[in-house]
Amino acid sequence: MDRLMRRSSGMNEKRILLLEAEGFVWDKPDHVWESRFQELRAFVALNGHAVIYQRKLGPYDPLAGWASMQRRNYIKRQNGQHTTLTEDRIEKLNSVGFAWGKYANESSTDAL
């Protein structure tokens, strides 16, 4: 939620600043996406790649589930359907070498 929308909610600037100082999350879906992306970046730093797929209950299963959702949303976007996967998010994922395809060597969006 941007500052203009927060102001139109009836909150004064002081309350908005106090909430923000405490780390209040205005846009939960965006916050969750960014948190998972940071997890992916940590995965890349640790493993040297962004190739992550769901396996049988592994330590990265929640992250792998999120990665699968990004792949599904990319396909939806390519098909003209509504999705939360923006061009900015695609660029972020590409910046860490995200694997878009079914196979590890399909890391670019051209694979889909």
What is the secondary structure topology, with strand pairs?
Elements: H1 3-8, H2 13-21, H3 28-47, H4 61-78, H5 87-95
Write a concise keyword list for the protein shown above.
112 residues, mainly alpha, Helicase_assoc, Helicase-associated domain-containing protein
Q: Name the structural class.
A: mainly alpha
Kindly state the percentage of residues in helix. 55-70%
**Rg to the nearest angstrom?**
17 Å
The coarse overall form would be globular
Number of helices: 5
What is the count of distinct domains?
1
Concise structural overview:
By secondary structure, this protein is mainly alpha-helical. It has helices at residues 3-8, 13-21, 28-47, 61-78, 87-95.
What do these coordinates show?
Residues 30-98 form the Helicase-associated domain. The chain is mostly helical and 112 residues long. It has one domain. 55% of the residues lie in helices and 0% in strands. It has 5 helices and no strands. The chain has helices spanning 3-8, 13-21, 28-47, 61-78, 87-95. The chain is globular and about 50 Å long. 6% of the residues are buried. The mean pLDDT is 81.
